[in-house]
Amino acid sequence: MSLPSPKPEPPILHTGTCHCGLAHFTLLTPPLPTQPTTTCPCTICARNAYALIYVPRANITWQRGQDEMRVYCFGPRRNDHLFCPVCGSSVMLDPRFRYQGVPSMEGAPDVVGVNVRMIKGVDMDNLTFTTDGWQWKKPSPQA
Fold first, then answer.
1. What is the DSSP string of 109-142?
2. Which residues of 60-96 are buried (b: 16+ CB within 10 A; e: fewer)?
3. Contact 51/115 with Cβ under 8 angstroms?
4. What is the pLDDT of residues 86-138, one digit of tens each?
5. pLDDT tens-digit map of 17-43
6. Which of 4, 40, 70, 101 is at 20 to 30 A from 50, Cα to Cα?
């Protein structure tokens, strides 16, 4: 006899902004405490206090500020770090171009790392933190 699987909770529409309000977006996600929040130990994530959840790009809607965001890349230049040019808030991490031309990433879901510190009303004490980050492995072909 197996235990019943818990029902997935319905997604919630969250609002996010940078400190000054230039960046304003919504995202549709399962309740935040039900998903892992990544605190990457790399230098840029640690300095910017990133606490990331990975959300399908299609679940993020910009109300304003997307075109004004500045991008910073470093080291192997695998990810775009989006930050506000006015207040300096680290808003998102976008690995979009990381996938281009990389055979092992073919078929990877199109996700964006959203800094949960930008989400209005987030309770950091109720989140589950990990340092593993988002990983995707290409499925092996079925025999």
1. --EEEEEGGGBTT--GGG-EEESS-----PPPPP
2. beeeebeeebeeeeeeeeebbbbbbeeeebbbbbbbe
3. yes
4. 999 999 988 876 566 666 666 777 889 999 999 999 999 999 888 765 554 44
5. 999 999 999 999 999 999 889 888 878
6. 101
